[in-house]
Amino acid sequence: MKYIPQGLRDQQELLKTLGLSSSDDVFSYIPKNLRVKELDYPPAQSEIEIRQTFRAIAHTSTAPSASFAGCGIYAHDIPSIVPFVQGRSEFATAYTPYQPEISQGLLQAIYEFQTLACQLTECELSNASLYDGATSLAEGVLMALRIQKKTEGKILIASSIHPHYLEVLKTYLVEFADRISFLSLEGDRLDLVALKKDLETADVLVTQSPNIFGCVEDYVTIGRAVKQSKAIWVTSTTEPLSFAAIRGPGHFGAHIVTAEGQSFGNAPYLGGSSYGFFATRNEYLRQLPGRLVGETVDQKGRRSYTLTFATREQFIRRDKATSNICTNQNLNMLAGLIHLATLGANGIRELAEQNLSNSEFAKSEIRNAAPKLTISKSPTFNEFVVELPTGVTAHSLVEKAGDEGWVCGVDLGALRKEWKHKLLIHVSELHSIEVIQKLVRFLAKNS
User: Fold this and answer.
1) 350-445: CATH class
2) DSSP SS3 for 181
3) Cα–Cα distance between 127 and 129 in angstroms, integer?
C-alpha cells in the first residue's frame, strides 16, 4: 500500500467533513496543561541539505573493526541479491496477505519458506514463520501442553538455554510456574543420566542446541530417551545455520522444532527485528500457531497460492484461538528465504563448513597461545566459551577491546553473575585468519 501525503486542499476537506476549523481542533479533547505548546524543530531542509547533514554526522556512529559477538544474534555475509529482490513490488507489503488475488508473489514466498524450513529442521510441517526464536519457543511449549491436554503438565527446561529465551518462557508460562523444573548440567551440557530419570514424569521437554555455551547437545541420546517417555520434545536453536552441519532436530525425534531465523538474510540490527522458524509433525496441524500457505489452482487451472489454514481464529471464534500471533514477519522472512535460495543446498552446507572450520581453528590457536585459558572439549558449531582465570573477567576484556575499537566476544556475566569468567566467542565466514590471530594475541596478552 503506497503512502500518499495529504495536500492543503485535502486537509481542508477533511476538516470540513469533521466540522472543524483547524487541525488544532482535532486535539481539543486533550487538556491544555498536557499539550506541548511548541516544538523546537530545526528549519526545513532540501533533499541536498539533508544528505549533507547526515554525511556530517555519520562519523558519530562507527562500526567495530572486528566483532566476535554472537550469543543469539549473528553476523553473516548477506549477498547483494537479498535486498534487491526483497525490494521488488511483488513483496512491497509486510502485512499478512489476506487478499490472495493481489498477494500471489508474497504468498508464494511464504510457501517456499515453509518448504525450506521443513528441509532444514527435518520436520513434516512448517508454519509461515513467527516473531523470533524466543517467542517461537514459547509458542511451542504452549502447543505441547495443548497436545498433552494437561493444564497441570510438568515442564522440564534445560538449564543451558539462553537466559533471554528463559525470560520469555517465564512470561508465557506464568500460570505454569509451579510446574516448571530445570534439568541439571554436567559441565556445559545436559546431564543425560538425570534427564532420563526426570523424563519419567515429564509432559514437556525443552532443550536448546547449540546451547548458551555454544555446545551441541547429544540429541541422539536425548531422542532415544524421549521415545521411551510420554513427553513432547520442544527444541530451540539460536543459530539455524547449524542445521546445515548437524542433522535437524526432527531427525532425532523432536516433536516441535523452533529456531531464530536472523542468521539468514538479516543483519544484527542491534538485536532485531527478526523472524522465527516453527516446524512440527503433520499430526499436530490443528494445534499449530500462526498460519499456513498452500498451493492450489485458480478457475483457469493456473498454479496459485492462498492461506489454507489459520489457527488464529479470532476472526470468527476468538475463544477458540490457539494463538494470538498476528504476523509472520514477512519482510524479514523474505530476506531469509532469498538468502537460502541463493545459497542452495550445497552453498548452505559450504557456509556451515566455513563457520565450523574457522571456529575450530580459533579454538586450536587459543589453546596453543594461551594455556591459562580453558576451552571445553564438548562439540561446538561456530561459537564457544573461553573460561578465564581467576582475577580476569569477561567484562574487563570486552571493555578493553571496546576501547580499541573492536569486540572480542560476549560477557556471559552480564546474563548471570556466576558466568563472569566466561567469554562467549562467535567465529564465522566473516573472520579472516588475520582477524582470528588478532583475537588470539589479545587473549594471550590479557590472560
Assistant:
1) alpha beta
2) strand
3) 6
